[in-house]
Prior knowledge:
Layout: H1 8-19, H2 23-35, H3 41-63, H4 69-77, H5 79-112, H6 118-135, H7 137-162, H8 179-193, H9 197-200, H10 211-240, H11 242-247, H12 251-257, E1 260-261, E2 265-266, H13 269-298, H14 308-319, H15 326-364
Antiparallel strand pairs: 1-2
Helix pairs in contact: 1-7, 1-10, 1-13, 2-8, 2-10, 3-8, 3-10, 3-15, 4-5, 4-15, 5-6, 5-13, 5-14, 6-7, 6-13, 6-14, 7-13, 8-15, 10-12, 12-13
Amino acid sequence: MRTDQISPRQFMIIVILYAFGTAILVIPASVAADMKQDAWMPQWLSIAMGVVLVWLYVFISKKFPQCSIFEINDKVFGKWLGKFITLSLALVALILSSQVVFYVGHFMITQIMPETPIQSIHIIFMLTVIFGAKLGMVVMLRTAEIFFPWIVLLFILFMVTSIPNMELNNLLPIGETNTLPVIRSAIRITSYSYMSLFITIGTIIHQVTSIQKAKKAYLIGIIISGIILLLIIVSSILVLGAGNTAMQVYPSYALAQRINIGNFLQRIEVIVAFLWLVSIYFKLSMFFYTTIKGIAHVFHFRDYKILCFPFGLIITVLSLVVYPNTAYGDKWDTLTFIPLALLIGVVYPLLIVLISWMRKSSIRV
């Protein structure tokens, strides 16, 4: 029996944690700015988009069983073009890793530890990711399995304690916005949550014990993460109001700061911080794993673990300069990241399906 096998449950958990990793803090504000009190509507469409993408990703995995995304590149595009595409994906994952580290540092120094140098936060967080990568993906997924029940419990506590502050009038009037903003916001949510799954989860899906069970776990993971994000968005609107949600940098964190049950249970924003930091740790670990596995595949390293420290150092340095300021970051996320996510999450997998079909047809002829 292979020692690197992943159970469907572990696979489902990593999909859930990955999908709402960066989204639970930043998505409510950006969607509320577009959709106002109807900010919850695009999330339903985003879940549907996620289900369609899962079908596409699993379809490709079934066509190439026992192959990682990098091996699929070699088979479909040929040796040299496949290596070039794999290297490009690794570099994309490298850049996205540095951005995630920036998000962690920015959140910590603006909300929790304002007097702490951002460099020290980046270094400490990245060291934990390097340590996890050196232990291996199987160990990391077992760790996620241990954390997951606590994450569910704390999320339920967060939602329940938010109920006394909710005002149903904040959702009115319903359906005031047009169709185009709904589609635009749904694409934004999907790009954050689901589209990069193809290159990251694609590095481990072949290790799941059964591809059929992996499909079910994939779908359940997408739906659960979508419902979690939907509840966060709805709660933010109900408690803060659409205008206030749009103005907040981290609405769900501001929402937690409002919780006060009988002047006894209050200031539980640490729960949101814990949920976000744990989920973003595993999302960053997946990006980092994709980077070093891709580089190892291109340059034929026998053990990817020797790349952990040098590339961890590169990501730490890059995280300090990847966003010169928050205004630049907001503009990049809107104008560059969404097209990039569409490229790697929609165009690229469709290209794999098309080329593999054309090659199969030419062989028959």
